[in-house]
Structures are given as C-alpha cells and as structure tokens.
Amino acid sequence: MLKIKRILISQPQPESEKSPYAEIVKKHNVKIDFFKFFKIVGVSAKDFRMQRINLNDYTAVMMTSKNAVDHFFKLCEELRIIMPDETKYFCSSEAIALYLQKYVIYRKRKVFASKNNICELIDVMKKYKDERFLLPCAENHKADIPCLLNKELINFDKAIIYKTESENLSIIDLNSYDLFAFFSPSGIKSLFENQPNFVQGEKVIAVFGSGTLEEALLHGLKPQIIIPTKELPSMTMAIDSYLENSSKKKKCKEVTQEIIEPVKEKVVPKPMKTAKASKSLKPSKKIK
C-alpha cells in the first residue's frame, strides 16, 4: 500500500486553524494543501436576457444554495430590478433561509425553509400552487429538483444565473500528491480539462457524494474512499480512518459492490482527449 505523504483537498483552506484537517496533519505527519479546482461565476445580464425571463413576473423564488442567493440578488442589482415586498422565498434549508437575511428583510417578506429534505419543502410549496415559482440554478444543475416540481404540477421556470469554470491547475504539481479529495463533479471535470491524460496509478482518490463518484467513474478513476457513509459521514473522518489503517498496515475496506455497481451501470468512461486549461489565468510558480 502506498504511504500517504501529501494530500490535496480540492477546496479552499479552512479559515480556522483548529480545523479537523489540522488534526490529521498533526496525528499522521502528512502535508495537506488546499486548492479549489473551479470557480463559480454569475451569468451576465446580457446572457440572462437571452433566456427571456422577467424576474418581476414571479411571485415566489426557490433557493437551493447560498450561491443561488448571492447570484440572484447580484443579477437583480445588475438588471436594476427590485423584487416586490410580497415575494415569497422557499429555501431548501434553514441555513439558506438565514443567509437570505443578507438581502431580505423578514418582516416584509415571507420565507419558508425545510428542516429535513427537499421533499418537505415541496410539500409546503404545494400549498401555494397559485404562485408562479422561479428556480435560480447553475448551468450544470441536477435534474432531480425540476423533476420533483414537475411531478407535483408546480408552476415554475428555471433561470440559469451562474456557472462553474475550471481553475488553472498549472500552478500545482499534481504528481507530487498521493491522495486527492473531491467534493463535486466540477472538481473532477477541472482535473481532466487541465490534464486530459491524468493517470491515477497508485494515487488514492476520495469522493464525496454520488454525483462526484459518477463523474470519477466516467473519467476512468477508481475511488478508494467513497463518502458519506453511516460510519464516516465526513471527508476528514474518512481520510483519518484511511491513514489509520495504512499506518497499521491493515488492508483498507474495499469499496462495496452495493455502492459502486449502481453508479457504474450509468456511466461509460470518456475517451482521453486533449484539452486546454483556461487562458484567463496566467501560470505562476508551482506549489511544491
């Protein structure tokens, strides 16, 4: 088993010095670097107008992420549109509802939030079928929420307000890392857009979520760490467990067929092809 010395986390570095990653560094004597593999950018007002959506035509907005909240109100500002005080906001979590206070005064608007899951929120939305809903989302959004809304005959339209773009990874020496941790399909896509001939070899791949797993398999990767699970709900717990087993020279638990097979059936590995990284960023000194 390859001894893990350097780990690359495809997310920004935590602001707190007391993060679980710091504990891993101290406990296992490894080096951990952080670098977000992609960035989120809002669509321009010009591109948004091409969708032929008038924001003031909608009486309710469904917010499914903080990114959606930020880019929705940024777009409103750019278009010089002020949402009416009567507009209702339906948030997929209480955290998003609280974040909405950055832009919305609660006493002037009605805000609804799900405590458990998206289905719970849709049950609430069904009570307001006379409303015309807008679903602000990303360019590469998942189809599950629109499908649920259509199934419940909720009157809604999608609005593409932001998208992901791959970062320039030329400033990173990817070959110097033994373990890569990915949290979204966009991170996997960025890796292969920058290095289309990337070979996993003995490197350990950790993925969070079924979408990230699917994208990894699509590109021919073989993840050894797949989370969340009941025993290991977080990436830090999973990495700590993997390193613990490695240090004791134990064979790490194989990825179960119950996890891998349902996803594997849905994907066909992409053929390797050349691709260029974004030219908008100039290469600088590599991280060593």
Give the SSE layout:
Blueprint: E1 6-9, H1 20-28, E2 31-34, E3 38-42, H2 45-49, E4 60-63, H3 66-79, E5 88-91, H4 94-99, E6 110-113, H5 118-125, E7 133-138, H6 144-151, E8 156-166, E9 179-182, H7 185-194, E10 204-208, H8 210-218, E11 225-227, H9 235-247, H10 257-264
Helix pairs in contact: 1-9, 7-8
Write a compact overview of the structure shown.
With 288 residues, the protein is α/β, with parallel strands linked by helices. 31% of the residues lie in helices and 19% in strands.
Task: Please describe what this structure looks like.
By secondary structure, the chain is of the alpha/beta class. The protein folds into 2 domains: 6-37 and 167-264, Rossmann fold; 41-163, 3-Layer(aba) Sandwich (Rossmann fold), CATH 3.40.50.10090. It has helices at residues 20-28, 45-49, 66-79, 94-99, 118-125, 144-151, 185-194, 210-218, 235-247, 257-264, and strands spanning 6-9, 31-34, 38-42, 60-63, 88-91, 110-113, 133-138, 156-166, 179-182, 204-208, 225-227. The longest helix has 14 residues, at 66-79. Residues 252-262 and 272-285 have low confidence and may be disordered.
Low-confidence spans = 252-262, 272-285
Helix tally equals 10
* Number of beta-strand segments: 11
SSE arrangement, N to C: EHEEHEHEHEHEHEEHEHEHH
What brief labels describe this structure?
288 residues; alpha/beta; Rossmann fold; 6-stranded mixed beta sheet; 10 helices; 19% strand; single chain; 2 domains
